[in-house]
TrEMBL record:
Its cofactor is Zn(2+). Belongs to the metallo-dependent hydrolases superfamily. Adenosine and AMP deaminases family. Signal peptide: none annotated. Residues 26-347 form the Adenosine deaminase domain. It comes from Frankia nepalensis. This is Adenosine deaminase. InterPro entries: A/AMP_deam_AS, A_deaminase_dom, Ado/ade_deaminase, Metal_Hydrolase. It holds the Pfam family A_deaminase.
Length: 361
């Protein structure tokens, strides 16, 4: 369990800092990539252990490597970085560290993307990938009580790949090896030149098997990709979706059908799809009544954490504490937790907000 003696509601008295406010809020993370969560020290250690030589060898060089020229450059670096993941132990370590890092931020539940195909295509036995991530998930749960679930993700736009085959394989992996850990199917990576309708059959098969549909769309391409994700992939939520604002009819659809967008502001800045915090569309999406939550995406690669995203929302996006608390509650509502677990978490969030207000008197 997270230690609540310092950050819990009871500890606050007097003015409450933004950090104290954010730390006291029990949080849910809905959009974070496992492979994009490798800590710098872990990337360096695994690269050394497996003698992967096209990876920077110091933390400073790694930080420079993570200065992305644009979204495609980000994807290139991402596909190179994952080469350090070679065996079951690597995946167990990554899953455990990622979950523990979230637990340390008072995150209680997370739905985490990972992309089995990009490991299988490098020759990592797929059984080892799943055994590893499941082991790490169990270890983190035993240590902290954090509950994580997987969204297996189809890598959109792999250079030279037959996308339908990649999609079919990903669904097959998820349904064969996923056990109880996998709750959803996604598609990520490139959007431009990767029309979503080609994934309709794969998504239908996954949904048939009980998985939720959580595609990326409207991050690097426009409203069309979001429409396609709703109409052809049966999207339960949309990863990013910020370009939905290009089309008022789509905004209306998201609002009335309550299709949530999982928004990651710092990611959008670091991949160059949004210029700066001041022009980030999250406040507009909230004002339009679109269901949204706040997420970290690929935290070490983007120099952020979920905690930082909440702080940026307060300080750089101009959102009030009340609105930020609503975003935290929205993440609970938009998650695939059971209704009673949602109720319990929402009650804890309300208690944390009330305690912060009471402390300030
Ligand atoms: O912010 C993101 N947007 C889109 N795709 C992403 C992002 N972060 C990681 N990926 C990953 O890039 C893979 C391609 O090989 C995708 O499958 C996806 O998991």
């Amino acid at each position: 369990m997270t230690d609540t003696t310092e950050t819990g509601p009871g500890a606050l008295a007097g003015p409450v800092s933004d950090e104290q406010f954010v730390d006291a809020l029990p949080k849910v993370e809905l959009h974070v990539h496992l492979e994009g969560s490798m800590l710098p020290g872990t990337v360096l250690a695994l690269a050394r252990r497996h003698q992967v030589d096209d990876i920077p060898t110091t933390e400073a060089a790694l930080r420079e490597w993570y200065a992305f020229k644009d979204f495609n450059h980000f994807l290139e670096v991402y596909r190179t970085a994952v080469k350090v993941l070679r065996d079951e132990d690597d995946f167990a370590l990554l899953a455990r560290e990622t979950a523990l890092g979230l637990a340390a931020q008072n995150v209680r539940y997370a739905e985490i993307y990972f992309t089995p195909y990009i490991h299988a295509m490098r020759g990592v036995p797929i059984e080892d990938v799943f055994a590893g991530v499941e082991r790490g998930r169990a270890e983190a749960y035993a240590a902290t009580g954090i509950d994580i679930r997987w969204i297996t993700d189809i890598p959109g736009g792999l250079p030279g790949a037959d996308m339908r085959m990649v999609a079919e394989r990903t669904v097959e992996y998820a349904t064969t090896y996923g056990g109880t850990g996998v709750i959803g199917i996604g598609v990520g990576g490139a959007e431009v030149g990767v029309p979503r309708p080609q994934f309709a059959e794969a998504f239908a098969a996954a949904r048939q098997a009980g998985l939720r549909s959580i595609p990326h769309a409207g991050e690097t391409s426009g409203a069309r990709t979001v429409w396609d994700s709703i109409e052809h992939l049966g999207a339960d939520r949309i990863g990013h979706g910020i370009r939905s604002l290009d089309d008022p009819a789509l905004i209306e659809r998201l609002r009335t059908d309550r299709i949530p967008l999982d928004v990651s502001p710092t990611s959008n800045l670091r991949t160059g799809v949004v210029a700066d915090y001041a022009s980030h569309p999250l406040p507009t999406l909230i004002a339009e009544g679109v269901p949204v939550s706040l997420n970290s995406d690929d935290p070490p690669m983007f120099g952020t954490t979920l905690r930082d995203e909440y702080l940026h929302a307060l300080r750089d996006l101009g959102l009030s504490r009340a609105t930020v608390a609503e975003l935290a509650a929205a993440a609970v509502h938009h998650s695939f937790l059971t209704p009673d677990r949602k109720e319990a978490l929402l009650a804890e969030q309300r208690a944390a907000v009330a305690a912060a207000l009471a402390a300030e008197g």
